[in-house]
Amino acid sequence: MAAGFLQRERIIAPPGWSRWLVPPAALSIHLAIGQAYAWSVFKLPLANTMLEGNPAAGTLTALPFTLGIVMLGVSAAVFGTAVDRNGPRWAMFIATVCFSTGFLVSALGVWLGQYWMVIVGYGVIGGIGLGIGYISPVSTLIKWFPDRPGMATGLAIMGFGGGALIASPWSASMLSAFGATGDDAQASGIAMAFLVHGLVYAVFMSVGWLLIRVPADDWRPAGWHPAEAKTGSLITTANVSANNAIRTPQFWLLWVVLCFNVTAGIGILERASPIFQDYFPDAGTQIAAAAAGFVAILSLANMLGRFVWSSTSDLIGRKNIYRVYLGVGALLYLLITLLGNANQAVFLIASMLILSFYGGGFATVPAYLRDLFGTYQVGAIHGRLLTAWSTAGVLGPVIVNAIADAQIAAGVEGPGRYTLAFSIMIGLLVVGFICNELIRPVDERYHEPAEAVADRTGAKAA
């Protein structure tokens, strides 16, 4: 068990405590760990200093980020049950320690000229902080907002998508101020930037674990009653353990749904700038700026989609919103494939919607899990499901980049470089759509006895 003030029993909210303090606590964690999407800011300074002249500099500078995302999925799956058992304060504290320590170890590695310490610090230690931090507020938010779970999780996970919008300019300005950019760039400037990141994020994330509270077992939102709120056939009032959840077909159907939805979104996001330039090469000298603007707009669509679509799922249901993500997403990919570069405005709108569905899929899935498996170990189940993200993070870029490279080698120009890749994305989204249609309520044989749930969560003692 977690010790002292980190224990779940120490953070049960007193009567009258406002549940609206929980989203800011969750955001303090997600806005911090969302820095991972801004790692590219460090790539060139590292290549020009620590790795200058190294022919593998491009691969080596990407390795901390790649390993961090892999560790996010692994640590979320491995530690998910401990997060639910020990409570959100323990989890947020561990996430803070790991994520901040990752930066501090990286700073030391740069000072000592040992790049392997950057890989271990940011990629492994920081990656564990990413995984635990990502899932730490999920089950707590759902328990505080049983009337609007999609809105609550969407608000927090929007922070992960928006973290880079803060971190990217902040990190870039810091690197410049510390002399880590330009022709006379110094590695010591990168070390200073890493050090400041570690210290500032430690303080910022501490707001989350100090502020977080869990509701008393008998707490309910004013005027809300579980029996009256059960309006969808998939919504359960029972609970399923994480170990039992992975034995159900529902878990694996949803795993495929999330994996293919993410694969389709990341297929555009990961190669956004080259795609735009291949589709619209006539932008002339402004092509680089236009492509950069395209990337920024897609990032904004990704962030806003996490909140807008997840909140919408509270009104129309989780299954219906995934019908939109997958079905409409497939039609949008088909539109881009058939239309080519005939209309830049349509291309832009379609791409923005696809990326908003990508972000919305991340934010909606915790509420979908809650509908299917209850709140008992939803954090642990979410952690296991995030392995779909790790898989898609490899699958999407491989499909788009490998096919595009082959088409370029064959002399194909323009949108034709992506026709086959986008056709594959359409097929994956159709398969995901079918899997979503096959999801049914979880069989009662997987349900946990009410007494066991109360004992294991400490509800009786509380």
UniProtKB/TrEMBL annotation:
The chain crosses the membrane at residues 20-42, 62-83, 90-113, 119-138, 150-170, 190-212, 251-269, 289-309, 321-339, 345-369, 381-404, 416-435. InterPro entries: MFS, MFS_dom, MFS_trans_sf, Proton-linked_MCT. It comes from the Bacteria. Pfam families: MFS_1. It is found in: Cell membrane. Residues 1-444 form the Major facilitator superfamily (MFS) profile domain. It is a multi-pass membrane protein. One of its GO terms (molecular function) is transmembrane transporter activity. One of its GO terms (cellular component) is plasma membrane. SUPFAM superfamilies: MFS general substrate transporter. The keyword Mitochondrion does not apply. Keywords: Membrane, Transmembrane, Transmembrane helix. Signal peptide: none annotated. The keyword Transmembrane helix applies. This is Nitrate/nitrite transporter NarK. It comes from Pseudonocardia kunmingensis.
